């Protein structure tokens, strides 16, 4: 077993590098997801729709749990992920709706 210059075995260093690459990809995908949900939030605000959609959220949790099972990932991880993301999305949608209300008040005045 050979070690890298940091003293970490090369195999462990290689595996960690792969994990780091996946983490970067996940962050980039999450950023793209939030760009799309911002657009959804703007649409909802413009059309007077509520920031949250509990029925869709429940369907999404079911869908991700099924995908997790197929991918041999603990479905609880997918549910925790989606619960966190949805909470952030709803928070953003509420802020967008408030911004829209304020803009409408300025326009109406």
What letter string, H or E per element, gives the SSE order? Answer: HHH
Q: State the total count of DSSP E strands.
A: 0
User: What is the overall shape?
Assistant: elongated
What is the fold named in CATH at topology level of the domain at 37-108? Chorismate Mutase Domain, subunit A
Q: Report how far apart the termini are.
A: 74 Å
| CATH level 1 name of the domain at 37-108 | Mainly Alpha
- Strand content bin: under 5%
Low-confidence stretches: none
GO biological process, one term: chorismate metabolic process
Protein name: Chorismate mutase
Pfam family, one: CM_2
Keywords: Isomerase
Tell me what the structure shows.
Helix content is 81%, strand content 0%. It is an all-alpha fold and 109 residues long. It has a domain at 37-108: Chorismate mutase (Chorismate Mutase Domain, subunit A). α1 runs parallel beside α3 (75-108) and α2 packs antiparallel against α3. The longest helix has 37 residues, at 10-46. The radius of gyration is 20 Å and the shape is elongated. It starts with 9 loop residues before the first helix and ends with a helix.
Write the layout of secondary structure elements.
Blueprint (H helix, E strand, L loop, with lengths): L9 H37 L7 H17 L4 H34 L1
